Amino acid sequence: MNASRTARERARSELISEIKEAARRQLSISGAQGLSLRAVARELGMVSSALYRYFANRDELLTALIIDAYEALAAEIEAADRAVLSSDFRGRWEAACRATRRWATAHPHEYALVYGSPVPGYHAPEATIAPGSRVPTALLAIVRDAHEAGALTVRTDKAPLPPTLIDQADRIAAVLASAIPHGVVIRSATAWTQLFGMITFELFGQYANSLDPADAFFDYSVARLADLIGLP
Amino acid sequence: MNASRTARERARSELISEIKEAARRQLSISGAQGLSLRAVARELGMVSSALYRYFANRDELLTALIIDAYEALAAEIEAADRAVLSSDFRGRWEAACRATRRWATAHPHEYALVYGSPVPGYHAPEATIAPGSRVPTALLAIVRDAHEAGALTVRTDKAPLPPTLIDQADRIAAVLASAIPHGVVIRSATAWTQLFGMITFELFGQYANSLDPADAFFDYSVARLADLIGLP
DNA sequence: TCGAATGCAAGAGCAGTGCTCTCGTATTTG
DNA sequence: CAAATACGAGAGCACTGCTCTTGCATTCGA
C-alpha cells in the first residue's frame, strides 16, 4: 500500500497538473491579473470552490506557476547549453542567452510572472528562491567551466572591487563550489543583469521607437557580454 | 469668458488632480492590481460612477498615472543632472543614475507601473511613448554634451556594428539632433538597459541571496558604465 | 468485513470589483 | 430666461476570491 499510490492519490496529483495546465493556458491569454480561479474551474468542468481542495488560494496557485516557470526556463537554458560542444564556451554562452530570449518570447506572460513586477499583495514565498536561482546558476556554470579549463581571459580591473562586492562574489562562487575570480563573478552578474534587462525592455515595450526589432542589438550585446566575461 | 475658466472647469481640473492623487496614494499601498476605482471614489467621498465623468475607465486612469510617473522620473533625473557642474560629465552621469535608483526605490509601485510587466489587458496607448522617451533622452543628453565638448573617449570597436544597429543608432541620435558616433549611441543604449536592469532586479527581488544589498554593485556598475560610454 | 474517518465536489452566500444606465439637479450658454 | 450641458447619486449587471455547509464516495483500522 506504500509503493503504489491509491487511486485517490493518483487522481489528485493528476488534477493538480490539469489545474496548473488550465491556469497556464489562461495566463497566456489574459496574464496574471486575469487569472481567475472560477474560469479555471469552469474550464475543468468543476465548481470554483472545489479548487480550494488543491490550492489554498490564488496566491498558492500563482506560486506553483512561478516555480514551474523558473524550472521550465532553466531546463530550456540547460538544454541549449548541452547542445553545444562543451569546450566551445562562447558558443554555449550565446546558445544559453538565445534560449532565454526564445523562451521569454514564447511565454511572455510566464516571463512577466517571474521577472516582471511582483503581483501586488502577493509575497513570493521562500520556496521560489531555489528554483529561481537555477537560472543564473546555469549561466554561471558556463563561466565556471571556461575558468576551470583555463580558457578564460582574466583581465585585471583598473578599478579595484570594493570589499562588499568581494564578499558577495565569494558567496556567489560558493554556490558552484568554484574559485572563479571575484572580478569574473561580478562581470558575470553584470552580464546576467544585462541579458534580462534587454529581454525585459524588449518584451515590455521600452525599445519601441528606438531599438524596436531588438534582434540585432540582442545578438551584438550577447557577443559583447562574452567579451566582457572573457570567454574565448 | 475665455481668459478665466468657468467655475465648473476649475472644479473639474482640480477634481482630476485629486483623483490622481488618491489613486497614487492607493497605488503605493496595494499596487496597480489593487487600484480600485470604488476605493478611490470612497476616499474622495463620492460614488464610483461619478469617476467615470473624469476617466472613461480604469485603464485611462492608469495611463494618466503612467504618464505622470514618467514625467516625475524624468524631472528627477534632469534636476540631478543640473545640480552637477555641467562640464563634469562623469559626475552628471553618476548623479542621473543615482537619481533614477532613488526615485525607483522611493516609488516602487510607480516604477513597477512603468517599467514592470504591462498590466494585462491594458494596452499602453501611444500617448505614453513620448513621456517615456524623456527618460532615456535625459540620460543621452549627458553623452551628447560630453561628445560635443570633445571630452568623450571614443574607442574603436573591435567588432563592427551590423547595419540594422547603425540605422537604429542614427534614428536615436536624430532625436537629439546630434552626430554622436554610432558606437557611442549603442554603448549608451547598453548602459541605459543595464541601469534599469539593475534597478528592476533589485526592486523585484532577483538579487535576493546574491547581490542583496545592491548599493555596492550599483555604484560600481555605474562607474563601469561611464567607462564603457567613454566619459572622462 | 463493516463502521468510522477522511477526501471530495457542489451549492449557496458574502463582500468586493468594473462598468452602464437612468434620473433629478446644478451650471453654463445662447 | 429657456435650452443645452455637466454632474452626482443610485440601482443594477456580471464578475471576482473565498468560506461554509451538505451529502456522497473512498479509504482505513479494528
UniProtKB/TrEMBL annotation, chains A, B:
Residues 13-73 form the HTH tetR-type domain. Keywords: DNA-binding, Transcription, Transcription regulation. SUPFAM superfamilies: Homeodomain-like, Tetracyclin repressor-like, C-terminal domain. Transmembrane segments: none annotated. Residues 36-55 bind DNA. PANTHER family: HTH-TYPE TRANSCRIPTIONAL REGULATOR RUTR (PTHR30055), HTH-TYPE TRANSCRIPTIONAL REGULATOR RV1816 (PTHR30055:SF243). This is TetR/AcrR family transcriptional regulator. It comes from Actinoallomurus liliacearum.
